[in-house]
Write a structure and sequence with these properties.
This protein is of the alpha/beta class. The chain is built from 16 helices and 10 strands. It folds into 2 domains: 236 residues, Rossmann fold (3-Layer(aba) Sandwich); 119 residues, Orthogonal Bundle (N-(1-d-carboxylethyl)-l-norvaline Dehydrogenase, domain 2), CATH 1.10.1040.10. It is 50% helix and 12% strand. Helix 8 links the parallel strand 6 and strand 7. It is globular, with a radius of gyration of 21 Å. It binds NADPH dihydro-nicotinamide-adenine-dinucleotide phosphate and the ligand O=CC(=O)O.
Length: 364
């Protein structure tokens, strides 16, 4: 596996650094030649709009003012965004605030309105978005929706052609990603899978971790945009590796949450204060932001949705399929998956995945 990792410095805008590096090393080219064999995005010169976008990112206030004051011809290539759910909306917002020329689509049209208010254009199908844009990013719920939006009737593939790129940031399995890749590449366009680690708040804060694989050229070309939405990015080689990495990470996360839930309930049953358990855990070797952030509300049986439980169960299911494909034993994840299934059957699909604790309460 050819793994590359790029991490961003904390003090300086990651996009600013990425773009400064690009502008230092790349020759001048016409702006419209965005991808493919023709000159690419990372070749845009130092005086280009990309550098304006990078400067705009140095503070939220500057980002807003730059986005609203930049003339249209100063903006970088046209970016499409498909899927404006919990994750897609803040990711798209960050692109707009950084000064990107964004075109959006969502199955439920009303979710496009806040983005349009910020300056995005709206198109009525994934195909129209892909036709209008140089790079199209998709953030869909699951394998079925990712395939439908990319490859279905009026899907994005119909609008793809040589010189364009498709970046799927949804969490799907490798086989799904390869299927979508085949459709996109069949048009002559480039494909990158780039699922993200990090939830609603990291998406809002531009602190996601991208787990990418596929066309290296597209990875390099969209790196400045990934840096707007995230704090780091890994390039993992062939399509399927990004999906696999994401599923392994989320399999661990799902098991951790199930175990934490057991601990909270056990502590209460033996007369301890679960709030104190959260504090103890937060100070020790098993400390994790997930426990500190979600623990206090779990103690109050509150599960404000950041990562929907239905998506965590989907990821457990897909991770177990991955394990099965290589005969890897994963008994802990399998047991945790059963709890998520129980929680779903109790109507908790759209609650945060920390609501898995309710499945254990139901077993008492
Ligand atoms: N939330 C989180 O913390 C994280 C989520 N992820 C992953 O990111 C992806 C999106 O998650 P999130 O934003 O939370 O999910 P949401 O459920 O909030 O959003 C899902 C998006 O997919 C769209 N969609 C669903 N089904 C279809 C369909 N059949 N056709 C077209 N569009 C469809 C929805 O459209 P509509 O608005 O019309 O329903 C919506 O835009 C998932 O793969 C998830 O596993 C990854 C990291 C973190
Ligand atoms: O996929 C969920 C996350 O928090 O990452």
């Amino acid at each position: 596996m050819n793994a590359w990792v790029h991490r961003s410095g904390r003090g300086l805008s990651s996009a600013a650094m990425a773009m400064a590096m690009c502008s230092a090393f790349c020759p001048r080219v016409p702006r419209r030649s965005f991808l493919g064999a023709t000159p690419a995005l990372h070749s845009i010169p130092p005086s280009s709009p990309l550098r304006l976008s990078a400067r705009a990112l140095s503070s939220p206030a500057r980002a807003s003012s730059s986005a609203s004051s930049s003339p249209a011809n100063e903006l970088p290539g046209r970016i499409g965004f498909l899927g404006l759910g919990i994750m897609g909306t803040p990711m798209a917002q960050n692109l707009i605030k950084a000064g990107c020329d964004l075109t959006v689509w969502n199955r439920t049209k009303s979710k496009c309105d806040p983005l349009v208010s910020l300056g995005a254009q709206y198109k009525s199908s994934p195909e129209e978005v892909a036709t209008a844009c140089d790079v199209t990013i998709a953030m869909l719920a699951d394998p079925e929706s990712a395939v439908d939006v990319a490859c279905g009737k009026h899907g994005a593939a119909n609008g793809m052609s040589p010189g364009k790129g498709y970046v799927d940031v949804s969490t799907v399995d490798g086989a799904t990603s390869k299927l979508i890749c085949g459709h996109i590449k069949g048009t002559g366009a480039l494909f990158l899978e780039a699922p993200v680690s990090g939830s609603k708040k990291p998406a809002e804060d531009g602190q996601l971790i991208f787990l990418t694989a596929g066309d290296k050229a597209l990875y390099e070309m969209v790196a400045p945009f990934l840096d707007i939405m995230g704090k780091s990015k890994f390039y993992l080689g062939d399509v399927g590796n990004g999906a696999a990495m994401k599923l392994v990470v989320n399999m661990i996360m799902g098991s951790m949450m199930a175990s934490f839930s057991e601990g909270l309930l056990l502590s209460e049953k033996v007369g301890l204060d679960p709030k104190v358990l959260v504090e103890v855990v937060s100070q020790g070797a098993i400390s994790a932001p997930m426990y500190s952030v979600k623990g206090p509300s779990m103690v109050q049986s509150q599960y404000p949705t950041a990562f929907p439980l239905k998506h965590q169960q989907k990821d457990m299911r897909l991770a177990l399929g991955l394990a099965e494909s290589v005969s890897q034993s994963t008994p802990i994840a399998a047991a945790a998956n059963e709890l998520y299934k129980v929680a779903k059957s109790h109507g908790l699909s759209d609650q945060d995945f920390s609501a898995v604790i309710e499945a254990l309460k139901a077993k008492q």
